[in-house]
Amino acid sequence: MKINETGRVGALNNYQRHIETQRQDSDRKARRKDEVSISTEAMELLKAREMAQDPRRLERIEELKSQVSSSMYHVDAGKLAEKLVPYFKSYTQSGDQS
User: pTM to 2 decimals?
Assistant: First the structure.
């Protein structure tokens, strides 16, 4: 007995692989439709919104508002200078490089 055309089995496997690949591609496309992504900017906005609703922060803001409205708010010049010095140092350093 002589067996001819043994390559047909391989051709059938190629056909099955092709059909399986198409099915997997269609499954992936169907799954991607339900995908949700949140940008980094939106995440920052959500975080800022949560911070704004923090009760301690709201209490501090109300305290500052009442001090400003009653003219009792006092700016500590030393603390302000401490916060401004690093900014001006970085500003002058970046100005020197360009």
Answer: 0.40
